[in-house]
Amino acid sequence: MNKYFPDVEKQISYEGKDSNNPLAFKYYNKNQKVGGKTMGEHLRFSVAYWHTLMGNGSDIFGSPSFKREWHKANNPIDRAKETMEAAFEFFQKLGMDYYCFHDRDIAPEGETFSQSCKNLETLVEFAKALQKETGVKLLWGTANLFNSPIYSQGAATSPNAHVMAYAAAQVKNAIDATKELGGENYVFWGGREGYETLLNTDIKKEQEQMAQFLHMAVDYKKKTGFAGQFLIEPKPCEPMKHQYDSNVATTLYFLNEYDLSDYFKLNVEANHATLAGHSFEHELAVASAAGKLGSVDANRGDLLLGWDTDQFPTNIYSTTMAMMVILNQNGLGKGGLNFDAKLRRSSTDPTDLFYAHIGGMDSFAKGLLIAHKIIEDGALSNFIKERYSSFQSGIGAKIVAGQSGLEDLEKWVLNQDKPLLQSGRQEMLENIINSYIL
Ligand code: XLS
Ligand code: NI
Ligand code: NI
After folding, report:
1. Cis link prior to 64 (omega < 30° from 0)?
2. What is the torsional sign of CA 222, 223, 227, 230?
3. With contact defined as beta carbons under 8 Å apart, do 265 and 293 qualify?
4. 118 within some domain
5. Count of domains in the chain?
6. Closest atom of ligand 1 relative to the 238 alpha carbon
7. Cβ atoms of 267 and 284 closer than 8 Å
8. Residue 144: is its pLDDT beyond 90?
């Protein structure tokens, strides 16, 4: 396929860090072994269909600015098919193994619900053939439950039962589409599941609805034998003021509270972490500590802008910290690193999509190499182990074993001198990290 990206003639290749070819990888060398796995297996990169294929450069103040041959056909089905052809040409030229979509990205909404379902079926068939031809796979599918005006007061958490039912029917079809295409995961992102004002909202009722909605999805997954992993993607706000899955810890609590924990993992997005007032690595680490880090939406925000700018990741410090969490939990399993990221409105050419993804992939590849070395050398883990070593023997071991209560501890303390505190050595450790990065 060579139609929509004529400026990129052949597949992007790895040329090493001294190359000055802007259309080559400097660090991402797919088959290079890092520890026991190849870079490709570690990183499992994915293209986000909505930004990369559907993005047109418009924002709330401005009209479309991108030139896209695949957006030109008048008939919506023809346009969707051409967009998908462009997608697979892009995936192949980039050497990308995975992609992700919303139902309404790949197939246009019809006049009626049943027409929308038919459109989706048509495009799923089309995608299936292209996946077979190219070997590109679906990392995850999802339903767009935020664009249509009917969802303006929530989808699963709408005050209107008909709307909740409509969202459920849409999710059923999106799960079917994901299953048909061999999707390895299915994502729930609740952009409209939240509220604007307490004056018209029953929080408890809405959260119960959301739980019930997710239980219905779990039942359907069991019934149909869909083997993909269900993922929830937390975000604190935007488009709603308060979103129920506001960060990792809140989402973990919600899953436990409503007996959903066994069926879900989390899809952690960098820019959602920072919007929640956390760092990307904090959210990854909290999810990982609970055994629930399933996949990642790899992007970055801008700390000077208070919204989801969805920029391509370029910060090596951040990718290093992220890859340390991922390597320490032995990878993402079925998950991957999905570039939920978009070009700036002024980056108007299709070739800019290549520069953006190459930069993101190289940043994570470099982060992987650095994180692997830090872990292999025990540069942090030895220090951390030593820092908690007082729990390995004596009174510490007794506490861990649950063998002492408050009274025993008081008795023990009364016979001791004051505790001796050791330095946390933060600055020294920061220097160590820099010595690996620089
Ligand atoms: C929006 C979300 C969205 C999800 C998929 O902020 O990141 O794109 O990843 O619905
Ligand atoms: Ni996302
Ligand atoms: Ni986002």
Report:
1. no
2. negative
3. yes
4. yes
5. 2
6. 6
7. no
8. yes
Q: Is 105 a catalytic residue?
A: yes
The reply to whether ligand 1 has any atom less than 6 angstroms from the CB of 97 is: no
Average pLDDT, the chain: 98
Take residue 401 and report the two structure tokens written for it: 């074993």
Instruction: Please check whether residues 56 and 186 belong to one and the same domain.
Output: yes
The DSSP string of 99-114 is EEEEHHHHS---SSHH
What is the reported pTM?
0.97
Mean pLDDT of 150-160: 98
Active site residue 102: yes
Count of beta carbons in the 10 Å neighbourhood of residue 63: 8
Q: Which two tokens stand for residue 154?
A: 């929530």
pLDDT tens, 297-337?
A: 999 999 999 999 999 999 999 999 999 999 999 999 999 99
Residue 142 inside a domain? The answer is yes
Distance from the alpha carbon of residue 194 to the mean position of ligand 1, in angstroms? 15
The DSSP element (H or E) to which 127 belongs, if any, is: helix 113-134
| Token pair for 305 | 């802008």
Residue 250 tokens read as 């809140």
Range of the domain at 87: 13-377
